[in-house]
Amino acid sequence: MGPDVLVVGAGIVGAASAFRLAEAGLRVLVLEKEATFAQGSTGRSAAGVRVQFSEPLNVLLSYHSILEYRAMPEAGYRPIGYLFLVPEALREVQEEALATQRALGVPVEKLALEAAQALVPFREQGLAYATFGPVDGIIDPHGATAHYLREARRLGAEVRFSEPLLGAQRKGGVWRVATPKGRYEAPLLLLCTGAWTGEVGRRLGLEIPIHPVRRMVYATAPAPFPHAFPLAIDLATGFYLRSEGPRVLLGRSNPAEPPGFAEGMDWEWLGPTLEAGLFRFPFLEGLALDRRASWWGYYEMTPDHNPILGFVEEGLLVAAGFSGHGVQQAAMVGRLMAEEVVHGEARSLDITPFRLGRFREGRFLKERGIV
């Protein structure tokens, strides 16, 4: 007997979805184009998890996921915290986001700049205050993905690697999917294909507004520090840093980076990144960069930088387009995709704001917590 659901993609979102679908008693087959799991955006993530968003659904997706990662040893959850440095120009906007977070019952603190200095030294010029999420932190995306796939297999799911989706057609209520190694059929198809979702959609004859944008993570050489730094973000410029053992990881999104599958490190963007970083965090001046420890990956971007979740047409679901937030929301998304399949709609959270139809209707969300 064939599978009930074909899950395309073995990153953390696909793995979590496969596990929850199998847990619900469905026969699941996962198809992954790479030779192993977590080789796309998952494996190249900066690994952060945070509740500090402005859209309620983003807050809750992340919070429920963090609670799941906290109970999962394989996820390697470390609550190092996220520190947002809020400029005067964003004082009111961030106050509104903070009110939303508190109304939803998630732990976020407002800090005076003096108190924030105890977490990481920074120049206070132009800043109003800071916010700190004590349950925010980092996880091990590889460990979490491996756990989900292992649990999915334990429940009967099958995972096949080196099988990219070449094409798919739906006839008679069944998806017929072709890969270089074979053909598969199932009533339901779930795309967890990250930055490749727009391309995969076109192979199905669909236009799904998700495209890749390259992002850099620069790493310093090891250096002694008195304590570990949280993931600190200067909201004035989008520059961020955090500790990784004796190193500091740092980055800043390039708004001029064109969409597409560009590869390799963008060393020309290091200058503008450091310019913003050195202004706010002068201690970085004494650190050396380790080019070999730096890396790049893709954000899977939608027009409003929020994901597309759930059914997009009969028999076809999408869980992609997280725009940098896939790792931190995958645990809860897996549960919601299983509910969407079993019940016809997600029940634990209302995912209506993140359905594809919003773009067709011209309803773009305004998430203020994009970095």
TrEMBL record:
GO CC annotation terms, alphabetical: cytoplasm
Mind listing the GO molecular function terms for this protein? oxidoreductase activity
Q: Where is the FAD dependent oxidoreductase domain?
A: 4-339
Any matching Pfam family: DAO
Q: Which InterPro entries match?
A: FAD-dep_OxRdtase, FAD/NAD-bd_sf
Task: Report if keyword Oxidoreductase is assigned.
Answer: yes
Keywords assigned by UniProt, alphabetized: Oxidoreductase
List, alphabetically, the Gene3D superfamilies matched: D-Amino Acid Oxidase, subunit A, domain 2 (3.30.9.10), FAD/NAD(P)-binding domain (3.50.50.60)
Is Oxidoreductase set as a keyword in this record? yes
Q: Tell me which PANTHER family the record gives.
A: FAD-DEPENDENT OXIDOREDUCTASE DOMAIN-CONTAINING PROTEIN 1 (PTHR13847:SF287), SARCOSINE DEHYDROGENASE-RELATED (PTHR13847)
Tell me what this protein is called.
Answer: FAD-binding oxidoreductase
